[in-house]
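In the previous chapter we treated chains in isolation. Here, by contrast, the input contains two separate entities that must be folded as one system, with a combined length of 925 residues.
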Amino acid sequence: MSEKNGEKSVAALRKFNLIYAICLSALIVITGVCFVVAVCHLYFTGGDEPYTRERVGEYLRAIVIPIALTVVASVCGGVFSLFLGVSEKRKVGGVSYSLGRRALARVFAMNRECAACEKVQKERDIRRLIYVITASASVFLLVLSFVLAVLIPEHTVEGFNSHVFSAILIITPATVISIAGIFASLLLCSVSEMREYLIMKDALKLDPEAKTLGEGGEAVFEKPRALLWIRVFIVTVAVIFIVLGAMNGGAYDVYAKAVAICTECIGLG
Amino acid sequence: MKKFLSKLKRLIPSKRRLIQLYAALLVNANVKGFASGTIYQGKLKTVCTPGLNCYSCPGASGACPLGSLQNALSSSGKTVPYYIFGIILLYGIIFGRFICGFLCPFGLIQDLLHKIPTPKIKKNRFTKALSYLKYVILVFFVFIIPLLYMFRDFPLPGFCKYICPAGTLGGAISLLIHPANSGMFARLGPLFTWKFALLVSFIVGCVFIYRMFCRFFCPLGALYGLFNRFAILGIKLDKPSCTECGKCIKKCKMDISRVGDCECINCGECVSECPTGAIQWRGGKILLPKNDLPENPSDEEKALYEKKRKRKSLTVKIIAGVLALSLLGGALVYYNFIYEPPVTDEAPTLKTVPDATFTALGGKQFTVHGFHGVNVITFIDKEDIPSSIDRLSELTSLVKSVNPSASEDAWCRVILLFTGCTVEEAFANRDVPMTLAQVLQNPSLVIASDKDGSYHKKLTDLGNGDGIFIASKSKLLSSVLDANASYEDIKNSAANANTDAREGTNEGDLCPSYALERLLSEGTVSISELKGKTVVLNFWYTECGPCVEELPHFDEVASEYKNKDVVVIAVHQYATKSLATREYFESKGWLDSDIIFAADGADEAYYQGKLKFGTAWPSTLVIDSRGVIYKKFEQKISKQELTSAIDGAIASVSLP
């Protein structure tokens, strides 16, 4: 009975945890949105001098409540999870995908007549096709947009910021489409890989404790002696470069840039 | 009670967290920079810190490797960037992405943000694909943009300017919070709006996605990741012991394909997860003893070995701890107590003319400060009266000119003081010069006696010379003219002194003067010798992108306004004066420019010492012909803003 009660209270605590976490997430997102909206409003309604200490203070005061709520909620959430948090149940079991793939590769190498192997090979061919199409389309789009961006008329030095922004505006849609395409292809490939995995699991009835066999040896650069030589070589080159840099004024250039506020770097233009 | 204590134990930071905090404090050791709102400007800024820490952060004790790399690439046409390449190679081969896991302050911030208890977005194949974005950012923003602008010959750090959140958080916000940097608000614009919005997005994103910036956007992590397999410190996988159970990959929150690859930040959380002990720390053998147990050791041998091993391990830990604490302590002491920013001696500038009471010819008493306008004070010794007729005629012309109707409220007054005698003695047995007689009744002329010459001495000491002393409306000694100066010169100087301005650094103040060393010719130039002309003072330096971007406007304006008595002086930062070579000006086509190129005094004596600007360039002052600051810009300006200010400065001054 007490065990049942214990389980019930753990379940209730988990539910409360979840609800609290979701509310805190919403609060954080709302606070973030408040900040972004405030800064955009400051900029777009400020005229010639959008940012003054007084205006910034005024806008900060306007969003102080969500900020304070977020901070308090985060701290309370931390304290709560420290003393009353319940660890999630860990899902254990299943076979790692890489283990299954390696075992299947051995079977395929030994027995090319295997029906399951043919199905798996088919899934792999489908995935290869998806990757090739997506990669080609993305590269084509990006190169095209980059070429277009380079071909736009030269701006005067005064407008070079707008030059970079225009280039970014041209490249951004192509980038977004490429990323969407990549995500879509990944989604399709994950479906295919799941099918492949199920085929492997059914066909081979893998033992989760099985060790892999016949892996390739170490790569050349993973062998201790080769690794040592690579490290010695790179350290030597690095030291030589640093000395050369100190002699040719490169170190001074770093110092010269670092001792003045880089107004561009901190967004001051 | 035990349960409570065990929960409290979770509050104790782990070893990795302690190292992260230590590193964050070490790279931001200039704590007093936050209090003073200024950045550290000492020689140690030549050393790059390993992680992402903007060098414009007030606390930054060293330079940022990524920012330095971009600037070095921008100037790679002039100087091959060996130094920064060497630094990155060295950090990469020693640490690899161990820096990301242990030494990067921004990584620490992301880790802490991720601790906020919200639902988390776990890694998946989409995040794995997104992790390649940082390589695109590395190539495009860190390499291509600076190199492209290298051909335009001005520096543009692409990543720092358009993306880096560490600069916005550590640099901009830390500086803007301080009241001394209120002037920086004028520089905020679309770029800050974009970067701030990006910063907020990263902060919110990091709450839900583990190390969102590190995984998807950080080009420094991408660079260090290339060294991960070869780095001396970090995680390594012992392949013969690995059963490919995948528990390490499941435990890891980064998008790794295998432990120790380019995405691995060497945090070490997988070490305890591996059931076969195949995951180990690299470099451990350097510090720990070799396993020299014989085959089939007895229990006693095992126990002895363990004891020896523990003792050696403890010794190493103590030595490392002491060294680390000494380094941190030394850094904190140096940056906050030993290092002093340069203090410039201020040369004497405009001083207040001393007041004095005299009895004028006619018996009426007056004081120097009792007049609301400009005082032109001149002294004549009794022996010099005959020979000073010309001077008297110049003064007479001035009196007639400034007060033709002999009214009481003229803007200028001439005070003629005889030294060594009374006024009666001065004119005894002499006729009053006709020129003077004509204006004896004019209120703009007062004649009195400084018999003992004490007031003459005071003014001579004040002005470091003798002659005609011009005291401004605000009672400052505006200028000292030669005793035989012409009427026009005296009137112009008097007109220039006709201002309520006191010396200062704000609009409406008299601009302090300083002898600036000319860069393209011998000699110096100062605004005090350019009284009567409108002066544009622009402060810049060659490595500053916005400065170089706006200088062509000043070049155009200098030639367009040459005939309107406008002088443009471009004052180069002292610290990097050696970069402003003749070859540089020649490459820019500025050798024949109408701009006077000069350099600031040691430790930015003019820019920071006298004019009280901070550590941000460029800035511009438009000074009218009276020497008053008409307009002050603390940011890059357009040609339109510049010409508008110059026209305003010219129009604001009219000879009364």
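Chain B touches chain A through 114 residues (CB under 8 Å). The mean pLDDT of chain B is 86. Compare these points with the single-chain example from earlier in the chapter.
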